[in-house]
Amino acid sequence: MLTLQSWLSFYEKNYVCVGRVVGRFYGQDGLPTPALTQAEAVITKGLEANQQELEEKQTFPPCNAEWSSARGSRLWCSQKSLKHACCTH
Predict the structure, then answer these.
(1) Is 47 in a helix, a strand, or coil?
(2) Cβ-defined contacts of 3-6 (< 8 Å, 24+)
(3) What letter does residue 15 receive in the DSSP assignment?
(4) Which H or E run includes 73?
(5) Fewer CB atoms inside 10 Å of the end CB: C or N, the chain?
(6) Quick one: pLDDT at residue 76?
(7) Domain boundaries, the chain
(8) Residues 37, 26: contact at Cβ < 8 Å?
(9) Are 2 and 43 in contact (CB under 8 A)?
(10) For the segment 3-36, what is each residue's pLDDT rounded down to a tens digit?
């Protein structure tokens, strides 16, 4: 749904709306249907979840991992993420 929102935002910025397609999201009267209202609610939740994830990554930056046959596994985190980590290995 967020991909659809991104697509819609692009076209709203760059093109003039000349009408609506009657169907799932708009009725014969041109008004939004309950399906559009529901889709917009899902998009809003998705945008809120994305914002929360960004905020969490600033508080708890993700750690890094790599593996090579010569060195094996290696895990490292920034100093900020180590301050907030529940455990280290």
Answers:
(1) helix
(2) 4/39, 4/43, 5/43, 5/46, 5/47
(3) S
(4) strand 72-76
(5) C
(6) 85
(7) 18-76
(8) no
(9) yes
(10) 989 998 999 999 998 989 999 999 999 999 999 9
